[in-house]
Amino acid sequence: QRITSYSRSRTIVRKPETDLEKIANAGLDRLHIGLETGDAALLKKIKKGATPEDHVKGGQKAMNAGFQVSEYWMPALGGKAMSYDHAKNTAIILNQINPHYIRSRPFTPRPGTIFFEKASRNELERLTPKEQLLEIKQTLEALNVTSRICFDHAGNFWKKSNGRLLLSQSYEGYKFPEEKKSLLALIENNLRGTG
C-alpha cells in the first residue's frame, strides 16, 4: 500500500529535515509537487509563490528525507510568448531535481480564472495542439534525468493517425534515459504527420 500527499516546495524548504524524515518513516511514501514551470518570470506571472531555487531545494530535500517525489509540469502555461523559455527552463530545473516522476498536466484556462479572461481578450495567445506537442518535445529533449515521464491525464490528448492516443497514459510512464529516444521519435513522427 502506498500513501501519498500533495505538498508545496516552499513548505518542504521551511520544514527541518528531521521532521521530514519522521514523516517519511511514519509511512508517507510519496510527495506530489506542483512545479508548473521552471521559468522564474512565468512563476512570478502565475503567482506561484515559489522560485526555481525553491523548487530545486524542495524537491532535493524531500528525496533526501526518503520520499519518492512526483513533480508536475504544465506544458503551454506561458502561451506563445513564453513557450521557449518555459520549455528550456523547466528542463533545467527538473534536471537539477531529478525526481522519481515527472508528470505532464497541460494548461487549460478554466472559466472564472484570470487566465480564462486573458485568453478571452486575446491577451494570452494560447498554443495550438501541435505547438503544445512541440513544446513538450523541446522540454523532453533537454531532460537529462533518470525519472519516469508520465502523461497520465486526459489533457495529454494528442492522437496518432489511426485515432489512438499518441502518448501512453500509464501511471508509470516512460523510463528515462532508456526510453527517451523512442518517445522523442514517436512525437517527432506525429509532428511530421507520419505517426
Q: Assembly type of the shown chains?
A: single chain
Work out the helix count. Answer: 8
- CATH H-level homologous superfamily name: Aldolase class I
What is the molecular shape? globular
The profile of the biggest β sheet is: 6 strands, mixed
Please tell me the total number of domains: 1
Structural class: alpha/beta
Task: Identify the notable features of this structure and list them briefly.
195 residues, alpha/beta, TIM Barrel, six-stranded mixed beta sheet, globular
Characterise the protein shown here.
This protein has 8 helices and 6 strands. It is of the alpha/beta class and 195 residues long. It has one domain: TIM Barrel (Alpha-Beta Barrel). Helix 7 (129-141) runs antiparallel to helix 8. The chain is globular, with a radius of gyration of 17 Å. The chain starts with a strand and ends with a helix.
Short description:
This protein has helices at 9-14, 17-25, 40-45, 52-64, 83-97, 114-120, 129-141, 180-192; strands at residues 4-7, 30-36, 68-73, 101-104, 148-150, 174-175. The chain has 195 residues and is of the alpha/beta class. The protein has a six-stranded mixed sheet.
List the helices and strands and how they pair.
Blueprint: E1 4-7, H1 9-14, H2 17-25, E2 30-36, H3 40-45, H4 52-64, E3 68-73, H5 83-97, E4 101-104, H6 114-120, H7 129-141, E5 148-150, E6 174-175, H8 180-192
Parallel strand pairs: 1-2, 2-3, 3-4, 4-5
Antiparallel strand pairs: 5-6
Helix pairs in contact: 4-5, 5-7, 7-8
